[in-house]
What we know:
Elements: E1 3-7, E2 10-13, E3 18-25, E4 33-39, E5 46-51, E6 58-60, E7 68-73, E8 78-83, E9 92-99, E10 110-111, E11 115-120
Parallel strand pairs: 2-11
Antiparallel strand pairs: 1-3, 3-8, 4-5, 4-9, 5-6, 7-8, 9-10, 9-11
Amino acid sequence: QVQLVESGGGFVQAGGSLRLSCAASELPFSRYAMGWFRQAPGKERELVAAVSRTGVYTYYADSVKGRFTISRDNAKNTVYLQMDSLKPEDTAVYYCAAGPWLQLHRRPDYWGQGTQVTVSS
């Protein structure tokens, strides 16, 4: 059974940094694009960053460009999201997801359980 397990969420002041990790098991990791979504209270879930199978291609939502960096380590079956210059509006539950690159933003194959990120002003 495929599992995506996120870690690294928490509480941070505005301007601070957090690094999220997502460890995959029972997944042919290098065959999947990976992404990080977030969902704030009362809002729809949105894709904030994605990385292709080899890491050559990346995608960032406009709201996080220049502040967030997605990366992956295929040897460790892990994807990361480095979040710098955090803002209160980044507060959300962050979800890791896996799927084909062209459908990841709409319909990932697998989801993690989510990790809370709270940024205070």
